[in-house]
Design brief:
- Helix content is 30%, strand content 25%.
- It is an alpha/beta fold.
- It has two domains: 63 residues; 124 residues, Nucleotidyltransferase, domain 5 (2-Layer Sandwich).
- β8, α4 and β9 form a beta-alpha-beta unit.
- α3 crosses α4.
- The chain is elongated.
């Protein structure tokens, strides 16, 4: 899975005359190191770019151009990035949302959507990790939502899966994955969390025994 940002070659326009939405759109794109065009709302229909960020009030009633509105800021930045990729309808083979988890003292996380990694991070507590996973699973649409957890620390792995089952109110697939040889050899082992995040990415690409987890509201 090549780590190439699918948004790098996309032309994005910000179309709003309101200061606050413009600031939030532009700040988010700058954080992703993405360039953008500043256009007026009346220029949206004729804009030659790929995606337009605007407000609900300034959005044209009929438009074939992919649009995202300022209400996306209700979501986590990872979910926003995923929604941008989804809106652009990239011709990737699988519409899967796959989360790889490397359990340990620091818990690595890799989030892959439409076969592209959209987040690489680490967490120091199971509670914080599970809360974030729930935000991502609930915020992005996918044919299949799969959480892959390495088996290197089964105590933490089972704690994560149990907490997800208790707190996430929808179905998802769970895999416990063989974690052998997923830890990369990094020259500077003091690089905080880098090893855990890379291990999580490798875990997301492996296969294990798959369980379909149903929410407790269905299973009782």
């Amino acid at each position: 899975m090549p780590n190439i940002d699918p948004l790098l070659n996309v032309r994005i326009g910000i179309a709003t005359t309101y200061g606050r939405p413009y600031y939030r759109f532009s700040t988010y794109l700058k954080t992703l190191n993405l360039s953008f065009d500043s256009i007026l709302p009346e220029e949206i229909i004729d804009y030659s770019g790929d995606l337009v960020l605007t407000t609900c009030k300034e959005s044209p009633k009929q438009c074939t151009k992919p649009l995202l509105h300022d209400d996306i800021f209700e979501h986590h930045p990872t979910v926003i990035k995923g929604k941008m990729i989804q809106k652009l309808s990239f011709n990737f083979e699988e519409e899967d949302l796959v989360l790889g988890v490397d359990p340990g003292q620091r818990i690595g996380l890799s989030v892959c959507y439409y076969e592209k990694e959209i987040e690489s991070s680490f967490y120091s507590s199971v509670e914080d990790l599970v809360s974030h996973i729930i935000r991502v699973l609930g915020g992005l649409r996918a044919k299949r939502k799969i959480v892959k957890i390495g088996d290197g620390n089964m105590q933490i792995a089972k704690e994560i899966s149990s907490m997800l089952n208790l707190k996430f109110c929808s179905s998802f697939e769970l895999e416990f994955v063989d974690e052998k040889k997923t830890s990369p050899k990094i020259k500077n082992f003091n690089q905080r969390g880098k090893r855990d995040m890379l291990s999580a990415k490798f875990i997301s690409q492996r296969y294990g025994h798959r369980y379909l987890i149903q929410p407790l509201s269905i299973t009782g």
